[in-house]
Amino acid sequence: MHEATGPTAGGTQPPTAHGAAVRERIVDATADLVFARGVARTSLDDIRAATGTSKSQLYHYFRDKDDLIRAVIDRQTQRVLDAQLPDLETLDSFKGLERWRDHVVALQQERDCVGGCPVGSLANELSDTDDIARTDLLGSFTRWQSYLESGLSTMRERGDLRADADPHVLATAVMTALQGGLLLAKTSRSVRPLAIALDMALSHVRCHSSIQ
User: Fold this and answer.
1) Of the candidates 9, 26, 6, which has an alpha carbon nearest to the alpha carbon of residue 18?
2) For the domain with range 85-206, which CATH number is right: 1.10.357.10, 2.30.40.10, 1.50.10.10, 1.20.1250.20?
3) Concatenated DSSP letters for 78-91?
4) Could you report the per-residue pLDDT of 152-189, keeping only the tens digit for each?
5) Are the C-beta atoms of 145 and 175 separated by less than 8 Å?
6) Is 209 helix (H, G, I), strand (E, B) or coil?
7) Which terminus of the chain has fewer Cβ atoms in its 10 Å neighbourhood, N or C?
């Protein structure tokens, strides 16, 4: 995945508003390219062509391709979370969980299931070859899952879930079902596997309801 480091140190925060805007434009365009093609099939030449930036400009903001991809991981994570707000902030009830489930399925339906999960796709491509990226992506999933875990903790504290329900374990189960469902939805070009996986996961959560 590595490409040669540029002639300048790069990777520092731009000192001006214009510089910040240029950096953001590079990260956004690279995120779009990587989502469509993958990391390995997206070269720095592709990125320069898409953003209209010179080699020296690119290396001014990023040390190398790996440095840029780490920024892409952060950007794609934020995009995923932004797309699911405010549902992620209201996962403290069974109704809220169902609403989030419906929104996730609808988002994939709107995209005809093309591309799958932006974060999951990066994890699939990079986890075995780039340990720094793998760690960053683990942080992305942890951040995403924290919304589920927080909501489930609130449900347990309120008495909607049994006292022996483990919010971390339940949130992990839901996140695992989500990622598996997104992969199969991408492969089959159908939201049905995603809907089935999430329904199964939420049914598992309901098994821990304090009201039987």
Assistant:
1) 26
2) 1.10.357.10
3) HHHHHHHTTGGGG-
4) 999 999 999 999 999 999 999 999 999 999 999 999 99
5) yes
6) strand
7) C
